[in-house]
Amino acid sequence: MLRAKQNNTLSADPYQKRRQLLMEKMGEGSLAIIPSASEIFRNNDTHYRFRQDSDFHYLTGFPEPDAMAVLAPGRAEGETILFNRARHPEAEVWTGVRAGQEGACKHYGADQSFDIKAVNEQVPQLLQGARKIYYAFGRNPHFDTQLMQWLNQVRHEVRKGANAPNNLVDIEEFQHSSFRTPELYFGYKFAPGRNQLGSLEGFSPEKDVTYSIPNNLQEHRFYLEGTWKNLEGSMMLVSDSGLIKLPYYAKEVNIVTAHEAQLSIFLDGMPITAEYEGKDVSSGIATLSEPGLYNIISSENPSSHLLEIQVNEPGFEMYTFTFG
Q1: Are 170 and 164 in contact, with CB atoms under 8 Å apart?
Q2: What is the CATH number of the domain that holds 301?
Q3: What distance in Å separates the CA atoms of residue 65 and residue 95, rounded to the nearest whole number?
Q4: What's the number of domains the chain is made of?
Q5: pLDDT in tens, 270-279
Q6: How does DSSP assign 229-264, residue by residue?
Q7: 293 near 322, Cβ under 8 Å?
Q8: How many other C-beta atoms lie within 10 A of the C-beta of residue 267?
């Protein structure tokens, strides 16, 4: 086991901010257990391309398989515990360098890190005394069984003074509602108390404002480029072209707009692919023919992305982003 130094905090780390937000909502005396994805072997010698579990990546940024995060709000020894593979120089020649326990703390913000082989010893100890357990049941049957074995192990110790959790919460529903980007409003009427416009120029009611996009973007805020007229319920593009950028977390992204327009949609700096195109997008273009709601992003699972909307003609009016 390795414990991070007390000054090892990454205030600008988005993963740490996400964990903090989740733990604030969970409250002390609870645990969240989030396993990583596992490698799936094609045959004895090769495996399919690894894709990390969306929730695990969203909260940790940790790229390796065979890992597990435990979040324990208020725990004196550290609130973020990461179980991951130990360093193995011989294996790493073929599979790539592992973070190990030191790397988990130094580079991924874990307060403590244990070898993944220690889960059967350490997790029951963490479960003792927790009132609530947050976990996504049904997504990983093998891990479901493992978690129930740990819980039963703790319950068998109740007569000896152990305190077993008595409340299991599906983190899938809890986390999605906690982390999904909220509705974002472009009208100055809705600005007070929301702080959703990230561009430093801010709102100027009934005025034309030339916006710029800073280098550092914050999740759940939208950013503008070009000149936009600030209206009570919307913004209208005044310049010949404009750009909207939005770092978001959701499965679906919709826009509520007015006026005919053709919008070029980009995701993570590249033209959007069919995998993520909403029903109102074709070959990377959203064609708006009348006022209303248009679905521009649709994916199977919630995940973090940078959305860019390029507008190439004045008159486009933007009211709201909504998310699913």
Answers
A1: no
A2: 2.60.120.260
A3: 11
A4: 2
A5: 999 999 999 9
A6: EE-SS-EEE-SS-EEEEEEEEEEEEEEEEES-EEEE
A7: yes
A8: 20
